[in-house]
Specification:
The protein contains 7 helices and 2 strands, in the order αααββαααα. The protein is mainly alpha-helical and 161 residues long. The protein has one domain: Arc Repressor Mutant, subunit A. The chain has a two-stranded antiparallel sheet with strand order 1-2. β1 and β2 form a beta hairpin. α1 crosses α4.
Length: 161
């Protein structure tokens, strides 16, 4: 897995908020329940998004979290950078210092190509696009087996035709 679990959970929560909130605050306890995550863990994850300006938080009975910018202005790159940092987009796959064209690691040629493609995708894929796809395809955001996966949904739709 390229991204940390923390980053993955943060992205899942951001997608949920973007798909559900319509600019309103969403209770963190609701997000945690829907994504089958610990409330306290999710709160710590989302603090990283608020520190980066991707989300805002509001305490109180009607509080929760909301997007700090429009979903079309938040990229996958922004979300990854705020939790995992940007090293994934620049450093050696094997963590070797000085890896580059002059002194490549054994995986350098392959990793550079993958890293460049992933960087391009991350910088161009917006939270708005992710939220639209999650809503349109009924994509599951958690590992709960009670929620239909995108693959199951697509297979069901093909059978209907």
């Amino acid at each position: 897995m390229i991204l940390s679990k923390t980053c993955i959970y943060g992205i899942q929560a951001a997608i949920y908020v973007a798909a559900e909130s319509e600019g309103n605050y969403v209770s963190i306890s609701v997000v945690a329940e829907k994504l089958h995550l610990s409330f306290h863990f999710l709160t710590k994850v989302l603090q990283q998004f608020t520190s980066a300006g991707l989300m805002t938080s509001y305490r109180g009975p009607k509080g929760g979290i909301a997007l700090g910018r429009e979903s079309k202005d938040i990229t996958l790159y922004d979300m990854i950078a705020s939790i995992d940092g940007t090293e994934l987009f620049t450093e050696c796959m094997l963590g070797l210092p000085g890896c580059g064209h002059a002194e490549p690691c054994p995986a350098h040629d392959h990793w550079v190509e993958v890293r460049q493609k992933f960087t391009l995708i991350a910088k161009n894929l917006t939270l708005q696009q992710l939220a639209k796809n999650a809503t349109k395809l009924n994509v599951r955001l958690s590992d709960s087996s009670s929620v239909m996966s995108a693959i199951d949904f697509a297979a069901t739709e093909r059978r209907k035709r």
